[in-house]
Amino acid sequence: MAAPRRLEIETIGDVTVARFADKKILDEGNIQMIGNQLVSLIDEDGVRRLILDFSNVEYLSSAALGKLITLDKKMKANKGKLRLCSIRPEIYEVFEITRLNKLFDIRKDVDDALEGF
After folding, report:
1. Cα–chain-centroid distance for residue 108?
2. Which in 2, 40, 62, 91 has the greatest CB count within 10 A?
3. H-run or E-run covering 7
4. Which domain holds residue 23?
5. Cα separation of 35 and 115, whole Å?
6. Domain count, the chain
7. Is 93 a domain residue?
8. Which domain CATH number covers 62?
């Protein structure tokens, strides 16, 4: 039996949009699965423009943030671009506290993130 998909993937033009299926990204196993799924988009599917849509996400653990940093490094190493969007204010606060809002290109919503990609 295949593991439940943690991401809904959509392609808009040459940009891949990954929407998180879970409201809470806390569990180590799930984070690992999400990480693997995102890495395979880059490695196997050759995705170079990726938008992560957080509109469903209410909670994010620090382990999940670590995965995002790894993913960002991987994208940059592959000359790709990663953008995040639709992050709730209470989660965005964590990005601000950790100064990750400076590392990531964070946009208001998918339309905004697609602009000028």
Report:
1. 14
2. 91
3. strand 7-12
4. 1-84
5. 25
6. 1
7. no
8. 3.30.750.24
